[in-house]
Amino acid sequence: MISLTLLGILGLLSLFVLLALRMPVGLSMLGVGFIGTIIANANKFMAVGMAEDQAWARGLKIAYSNLAGETFEAASNYNLLVIPMFVLMGNLAGVSGMSNDLFSAAYRWMGHLRGGLASATIAACAGFAALSGSSLASAVTMGRVALPEMKKYKYADSLATGSVAAGGTLGFLIPPSGGMIIYAVLTEQSIGRLFMAGVFPGIILTLLFIGAIYFTVIRNPEAGPRGTRFGRSERLSSLVRALPILAVVLATIGGMYTGFFTPVEASSVGAFLTFVVALARRSLDWQASKQVILETMNATATVFMIIIGAFVFIPFMSLTELPAQLVVILTSLPIGEIGILLIVVLIYMFLGMFLEAMAMLVLTIPVVIPIAVALEWDLIWFGIIVVIVLEMGMISPPVGINVFIVKSIAQDVPMATIFRGIWPFWFAMAAMIGLLILFPQIALFLPQAVVGG
C-alpha cells in the first residue's frame, strides 16, 4: 500500500526522469499515467478489503479501459482538426516562398533604420506566425532568410541571432498558435476565444521586441547598422508581392473573428487558400508536395501523441489528489492572488530552463489549472500568461529550443553569443506578463467584445 499523495509525487518524478532520458513526451506521460492508474486503483480496492490479486486485476482493467477511451476521445475530437490544417498551411507557406516575400516587404520598409533589419525580422516572424502557428517553423524559416542579410550589413552576432530566436517564439502566441490549441483542448476552453485573446498581446509583444532592438542599438550603434534605403516604388512593389499572405491571413483569421468561420473551418479555408497560392506560384512539384505532406503528418502525429499521453496522465493525477492538495497549500499562503500568480510564473520560468515548451504545457496543466479555478482566474487570460512564459522558456538557457534552432543555421556563432543576445527580448516578455497582470483586458477585450461573456 502506498499513499495517493506519495504516488502522485513519484509519478511526477518518474516523468521527469523519463524526459531527462530523452523519452518522447507523449509516450512518457502515457506510460506513467497508465501504470500510475493501475497502482492508484489497486490501492483503493485493497483499502476497502478486496483481495490483493483481485485489486490488481481490477486496477489493470480500469487502466486499459481508460487508455482506450481517452485515446479514442483524443483521436475523434473534431476541434483537433485545426492542428493538421494549420500545420499544412504553414508548410505550404514555407514552400511557396511566402516567407521570403514577408521578410522582403519588412526589409524594404524598415531596413534603412538603425537596427532595421532586426526589426524587419521580428515583423516578418509575426506575419509568418499568423500563417504557421509554429515557433520552430518561424525561427527556421526567418533565420535562413534574415541571418545572411544581417551578416552582410555587419550586424552584431548577438543581436542578429537573438532577434531570430525571439521572433520565432511569436509563433506560440500569435494565432493560430499550436500551444493555444493544446491548452484549449486540455482545459476545455474555446479555441476561437483563445485565438482572439492572443491578438493584442501578440501585437504588443512584437512592438516590445522592436523596442528592445531600439534600446540595444541606442546603447551600441555598431550592433545594428543602417541598411539600404529603398524608394517608394520598391516598397510598394514589395507590398504587392506580400498581398497573397495578407489576403490569406485576413480571410482565415478575420473570418474566424467575425463569426463567419468556426476555428476548424477557418483552418481548412486557410490551408486551401495557401495551397492555391502555392499552385499559382508553381512551387509545388512532386518533391515539394511530398515534403509538405510528410512534414505535416509527422508534426500532427507528434502533437496527437502528446495529447493522448496528456489525456491518460491527467486522470491519474486527479486520482492521486495531488493537485487538490497543492491548491489548499497555495491558497492558504498569506500572499494574495498576485503573489500566488507570481509563484506559478516563477515555477514556469524555472521549468522552462530544462523542459521543452510543449512538454512543460502538458505536464503542468493538471497541476496549475485547479489552482486557477480555485482562485476564479479567467482561464483565457491565464492561458495567455502561460503561453508567454512558455515562450520565455524557448530562449532561456540551457535548453532554449529556439536558440539551438538558430545555432543550427548560424553554426559559426558561439552558443554563449546567442544566449547573450536573447536577454533584451526575454525582459520584453517579462514586461508583457506584467502588463497582462495589471491590465487583463489586453487579453480579454477582444473575446468579450466579439463573443461576449
Spell out the blueprint of helices and strands.
Blueprint: H1 4-20, H2 25-47, H3 52-75, H4 82-95, H5 98-110, H6 116-132, H7 135-152, H8 157-169, H9 178-187, H10 191-197, H11 199-219, H12 232-257, H13 263-280, H14 286-320, H15 322-331, H16 336-352, H17 357-374, H18 379-394, H19 401-409, H20 415-438, H21 441-450
Describe the structure.
With 453 residues, the protein is mainly α. It has 21 helices and no strands. Helix 1 packs antiparallel against helix 14 and helix 15 crosses helix 17. The radius of gyration is 23 Å and the shape is globular.
Q: Major beta sheet, specifics?
A: none
Give the end-to-end Cα distance, rounded to a whole number of Å: 47 Å
Backbone structural class:
mainly alpha
What order do the SSEs take from the amino end to the carboxyl end, as H and E? Answer: HHHHHHHHHHHHHHHHHHHHH
What is the beta-strand fraction? under 5%
Query: Using only CA atoms, what is the Rg?
Result: 23 Å
Distinctive features:
453 residues, mainly alpha, 0% strand, 21 helices
Question: How would you summarize what this structure contains?
Answer:
It contains 21 helices and no strands. It is an all-alpha fold and 453 residues long.
